[in-house]
């Protein structure tokens, strides 16, 4: 797709976000005047006639969480936040502006997407490894409720997760459980201290059945979002192969597989992060990202918009100028597929777009294909990306 078409897509998106100045509105109006078919579709969208899918999706969302998640995205002007969110939602809730980019993308390559029933979105499933080594599959807890006791602690299933009830008077953190999610799986656990952990696909969390009296330590591989219960007497530690995080009560996301290192993004509160090779604790503030290399060396600390990093926790994918390789790595874990590339250069294409995690993969790939001009070939559970 040539640069002029990218420009029009940008103008259309910003029009619905009410972020166009007078000159840009005139530019968009001139383009629509010379494209009557596109103007007809544009008017339908503006009048709300093509947004039924948006309305259904929006009705299912928790509005309070949605406001928090997209507050920064819609803060273009000092107007009603509700009005901004609803207008911006008209854009973001349609996967990747697929409707807004309609006929504009007609000249790009068509994606080869045969229907594949084998490729489905991820779901709530995991394997719990108990202190005696027994493995319990958790993907079918609806019909077979989990209710067991370990070291005096009761473990019960709760919808898409499990909860540990700490009723032990004498604490000992020597007995551990491990929660593993497969590719195409996610799960959450409320630990014995009340801390809630959301595990993303292909991740593992090792933790004591009951924490001791001095500290609370867990071990993470993969990606997880933490809501740590406040306890000033017992600091909470998250240990990865590369970093050690110290927390007293806060919310943050840890990803041990971003590129070649570990990224931590703080949503609220305060944490200290120490790299394996550096005996220095870096204090991280809300809306900051800190990254360490796979060798445990400090890479960077910077202010970020936290939404793209935690969107998976709220059922969304938000890619902000990400490489196609990163995007496909994310999709491969969630849809449990293998990805191959026709050449190295195709991996470097960059893309911005928002979509629902539970969307059919053909819808997502079709949108990416139209925007980026790449082709996806699907065979069984393998996707080949071609320019």
From TrEMBL:
User: What InterPro entries has UniProt attached to this entry?
Assistant: FecR, FecR_C, Ferrdict_sens_TM
Highest taxon above the source species: Bacteria
FecR protein domain ranges (all copies): 178-271
Name of a matching Pfam family: FecR_C
| Segments traversing the membrane | 85-105
Q: Kindly state which keywords UniProt assigns to this record, in alphabetical order.
A: Membrane, Transmembrane, Transmembrane helix
Q: Residue ranges of the Protein FecR C-terminal domain?
A: 316-385
Name assigned to this protein: DUF4974 domain-containing protein
Species assigned in the record: Butyricimonas hominis
């Amino acid at each position: 797709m040539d640069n002029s078409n990218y420009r029009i897509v940008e103008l259309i998106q910003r029009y619905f976000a009410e972020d166009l100045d007078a000159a840009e509105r005139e530019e968009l109006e001139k383009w629509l005047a010379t494209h009557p078919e596109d103007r007809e579709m544009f008017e339908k969208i503006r009048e709300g006639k093509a947004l039924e899918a948006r309305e259904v999706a929006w009705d299912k969302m928790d509005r309070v969480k949605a406001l928090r998640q997209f507050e920064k995205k819609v803060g273009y002007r000092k107007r009603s936040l509700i009005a901004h969110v609803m207008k911006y939602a008209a854009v973001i809730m349609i996967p990747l502006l697929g409707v807004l980019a309609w006929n504009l993308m007609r000249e790009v390559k068509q994606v080869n997407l045969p229907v594949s029933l084998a490729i489905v979105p991820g779901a709530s499933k995991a394997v719990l490894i108990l202190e005696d080594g027994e493995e319990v599959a958790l993907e079918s807890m609806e019909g077979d409720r989990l209710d067991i006791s370990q070291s005096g602690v009761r473990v019960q299933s709760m919808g898409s997760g499990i909860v540990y009830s700490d009723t032990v008077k004498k604490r000992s953190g020597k007995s551990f459980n491990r929660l593993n999610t497969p590719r195409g799986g996610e799960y959450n656990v409320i630990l014995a201290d009340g801390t809630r952990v959301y595990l993303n696909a292909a991740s593992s969390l090792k933790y004591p059945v009951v924490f001791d009296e001095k500290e609370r330590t867990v071990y993470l591989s993969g990606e997880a979002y933490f809501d740590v219960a406040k306890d000033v007497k017992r600091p909470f530690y998250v240990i990865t192969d590369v970093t050690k995080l110290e927390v007293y009560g806060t919310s943050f996301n840890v990803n041990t597989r971003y590129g070649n290192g570990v990224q931590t993004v703080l949503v609220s509160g305060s944490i200290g992060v120490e790299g394996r090779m550096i005996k220095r604790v870096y204090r991280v503030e809300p809306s900051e990202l800190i990254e360490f290399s796979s060798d445990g060396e400090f890479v960077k600390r910077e202010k970020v918009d936290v939404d793209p990093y935690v969107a998976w926790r709220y059922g969304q994918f938000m890619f902000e100028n990400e490489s196609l390789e990163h995007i496909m790595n994310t999709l491969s874990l969630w849809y449990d597929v293998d990805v191959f590339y026709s050449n190295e250069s195709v991996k470097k294409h960059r893309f911005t777009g928002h979509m629902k995690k539970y969307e059919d993969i053909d819808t997502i790939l079709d949108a990416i294909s139209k925007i980026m001009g790449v082709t996806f070939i699907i065979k069984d559970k393998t996707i080949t990306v071609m320019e």
